Amino acid sequence: MPNLRHTAGGFFMYLLFLLTIQQCMSFTFKCVATVTKDGTTAHAIGGLWVLMMCVYAGFVLPLTQMHHWIKWIHYLNPMFYCFYSLMGNEFHRRHMDCYQLVPSGPGYENTSLSNQICSIPGSIAGRDWVLEMTTYTRPLILNGTWCGNTG
């Protein structure tokens, strides 16, 4: 099991996002099929479009690492909004323990916590926990738009 958030609100938001993206993708394929004249062309265009949407959704290629000349694709990509909404739904206000402190190992057994830091990006020195997964969700959670991506 993926150990998702164990609340009714988290579950129903997850379900809402997945049903919404399923409908968006269905409508996208219907639109491509309507525009093209035959099934072969529709399959080719639909396959390339899905590949591009998956790559530019923000998981394979994070938003901060996208090339500036093709970064605009994420504004058209429903998978981008769904992915960041799911990440925000799952990691918002989640307290995660850090199991890998830096420095650690032989010779660092007596090092105080104030001189160590967690190896997860976004951690704060002196804490052995991280409040939320800041690598992917920080831009959207801090702006309060993770739920706004539903629309």
Automatic annotation (TrEMBL):
Superkingdom assignment: Eukaryota
Membrane topology annotation: Multi-pass membrane protein
Domain CDR ABC transporter: 102-130
Keyword annotations: Membrane, Transmembrane, Transmembrane helix, Transport
Subcellular location: Membrane
GO molecular function, one term: ATP binding
InterPro entries: ABC2_TM (IPR013525), PDR_CDR_ABC (IPR010929)
Annotated TM spans: 12-32, 44-63
Keyword Transmembrane helix in annotation: yes
Pfam family of the protein (one): PDR_CDR
Domain ABC-2 type transporter transmembrane stretches: 1-91
GO CC, alphabetical: membrane
Principal localisation: membrane
Protein name stated in the entry: ABC-2 type transporter domain-containing protein
